[in-house]
Specification:
Blueprint (H helix, E strand, L loop, with lengths): L4 E2 L2 E12 L9 H7 L4 H11 L8 E9 L4 E5 L4 H8 L1 E9 L2 E11 H11 L5 H12 L5 E3 L2
Parallel strand pairs: 6-7
Antiparallel strand pairs: 1-2, 2-3, 3-4, 5-6
Length: about 150
Amino acid sequence: MKELVRANSLLRHAIDIFLRAAVADSGAPLGTILGNFGINTVKFVKEFNDFTAGLPSYFILCTRIFIYENRTSSFLILGSSTGFFFDVLKLSKSVQVWHFDRMNLTEINYLPINSMLKLCWFKFRFYSLQRALSLVWSTLETTDLKVNVE
């Protein structure tokens, strides 16, 4: 196994765990897991919640926690597909549409523009906004979702 080094300290453990964005707490099971390795759980939870503060609390993120021999930690949020986020963020509304000679009520799925921008920041934060938007938009075009700019 390739050894990872952080601040002159070797990586000792890597743990994958699912955490809710912005509302992780230091209780079980996270507190139990990190406490067994001597990690300050309250400090970890504060860093994680600050990092994910702009995301809705219903996002469940697969998080890899790295534990180093000097009892420090870092984390990496493993990527979910853009389509998964579309499914979580989409909203629906009923609208009336003309169909030949009558009005029909139809259901439209849409993504609010502010949710799309947050998704761009979260998923592609190392790219420029223009590049991130083009990546998200190209995936959006393969779905039946519309973008609501209101």
